[in-house]
Design goal:
Blueprint: E1 2-4, H1 21-44, H2 54-82, H3 94-123, E2 130-131, E3 134-135, H4 144-178, E4 196-198
Antiparallel strand pairs: 1-4, 2-3
């Protein structure tokens, strides 16, 4: 006769209130990619214009990575719209819930505005947009005024995004220290097979 032993501490219990695997992966990939893009964007402004092509090469690399991240952002937004985020623990104060919603809305808004404004700003220059050295077709005539407008939006959104990221990280650290269950919603869940015991 075979019976299942009582569940002990070594057996993982499926926990509701966690983000899906797709959401966790997209969060990690975009976090790494966007942090890289922000650092690159700040650094490449200091790249000299000589020798010719050096500065342009870094800007084209930044634009290419931005287009890839833009597609991933679209995927993440679509996933978020079709999959509700897990609820916060019942012990979470209302003001923290509202602050989290505001910060997440800011993060999502910046993630959409940054690549879109960057692409539009680049498309209004006299130079072609290159996607990993592949020149894309021009969509419209160059315009110095529109280039400046979208460039300003792009830069402004990046600074707002960096501030929102700082708040997001500080909040994650704070919740992690408190071990209140907020951070664990975004961490992969370890699973272990149930332990079975045979009785004769």
């Amino acid at each position: 006769m075979t019976a299942t032993a009582p569940e002990d501490l070594t057996t993982a219990i499926p926990t509701p209130g966690r983000y899906t695997t797709v959401a966790i992966v997209l969060h990690a990939v975009l976090a790494i990619g966007l942090m890289y893009q922000l650092g690159l964007g700040v650094w490449m402004d200091s790249v000299p214009k000589t020798p010719p092509g050096l500065r342009a090469g870094w800007f084209n690399w930044h634009k290419s990575i931005g287009m890839v991240l833009g597609l991933l952002i679209v995927l993440r937004v679509l996933w978020r719209l079709t999959h509700a985020s897990p609820p916060l623990p019942d012990t979470t104060p209302r003001w923290q819930i509202q602050a989290a919603r505001l910060n997440h809305a800011t993060l999502y808004a910046c993630m959409v505005v940054m690549p879109l404004s960057g692409f539009l700003g680049s498309s209004f220059t006299k130079y072609p947009i290159k996607f990993f050295d592949l020149a894309l077709p021009r969509l419209w005539e160059a315009s110095a005024e529109l280039k400046t407008l979208f460039g300003t939006i792009h830069t402004g959104a990046s600074y707002v995004f960096m501030a929102a990221i700082a708040v997001h990280i500080l909040a994650a650290v704070w919740h992690g220290v408190r071990r209140d269950g907020v951070v664990s919603r975004m961490l992969p869940q370890r699973t272990r097979a149930p332990i079975e015991a045979d009785t004769h």
